[in-house]
Amino acid sequence: MDTTGKVAVVTGAASGMGLAIAQTFADSGMKVVLADIEEEALAGAVGQLSDQGHSVLGVRTDVSKLSDVEALADATIKEFDAVHVLCNNAGVGVGAPVGSTSLADWKWTLDIDLWGPIYGVETFLPLIEEQGEGHINSTASMAGLYAGASLGAYNVAKHGVVALMASLERDLRWRDSNVRASVLCPGPINTRIAESERNRDPVDAAKHVESEQGQKFWDFLTRTLASGMDPAEVGPMVLDAVVNEKFWVLTHPEMGEIALSQARAMLTDQRLTR
Q: For a Cys staple, 251 with which of 65, 180, 186, 269, CB 3.0–4.6 Å?
């Protein structure tokens, strides 16, 4: 798909991978709508792109609320009269093992990481199909291909996102649609996802249940992300998927071996690999 003059919506666009994707889209000639729950950071991101001469709109959006996602679609059509690309990128994470994860943590994670993309697909797909071509990308994770320890709620959400996008892509091809779908499965990226609770309601955040296992893993994750890939490298990967109709976007292809080892174990001794 030629992106020149097209309109893209990116959620979680005030920082990290979302901002990198929005920047890459804008540089490719697209008009970009940035959506995020963090108002101050969103204003800064909009200003950054606007100062570069790009056509950009910022809309505060809580993707866990269908009404907010619908309002985002309305604002996009009002400003640009069309939408061709959607990137469901907003996401959060919480470190806790299954059995020690509070129901509040389960709900918070699934509402944003899984229901957010579902709301996005169901709201924007009809609008994108009206244009005769387009693309929907959602951010999952390597955790959507391999469920590691101490990330139960996150693993469930991201496996769901992979299934959502694979189902969408097959449904689109089944009916010969010119809209395509893809899923971004990043490995360690230097973002602020380890600080997800900065945007969480304090009353809800207080329901988080601490565990020694969960905290040890979260400390390890924080150190790993700090030395992770620059988010700026992710934007071109997503743009490539949009332009060349690729489904899988893997920032660390070598980590795919973990998923392959799990599949091999399933077919041999039927044990779950560590």
A: 186
CA pair distance 263, 268, nearest whole angstrom: 9
The whole-number pLDDT of residue 231 equals: 98
**Domain span including residue 193:** 7-267
Classify residue 38: in a domain, yes or no.
yes
Q: How many domains does the chain have?
A: 1
Please check whether residue 215 is in contact with residue 170, taking contact to mean a CB–CB distance below 8 angstroms.
no
User: What tokens were used for 90?
Assistant: 């907003």
149/98 Cα distance (integer angstroms): 9
Which of 50, 48, 53, 59 has its CA nearest to residue 12?
Answer: 59
Residue 225 near residue 191 (C-beta atoms within 8 A): yes
Task: Name the band, by pLDDT with cuts 50, 70 and 90, for residue 274.
Answer: low
Residues serving a catalytic function are 154
Identify the CATH number of the domain in which residue 19 sits. 3.40.50.720
Q: Is residue 1 part of a domain?
A: no
214 lies in some domain: yes
Identify the top-confidence range among 203-207, 218-222, 227-231: 227-231
Given a contact cutoff of 8 angstroms between Cβ atoms, the answer to whether 36 and 91 are in contact is no
What three-state secondary structure class fits 261? helix
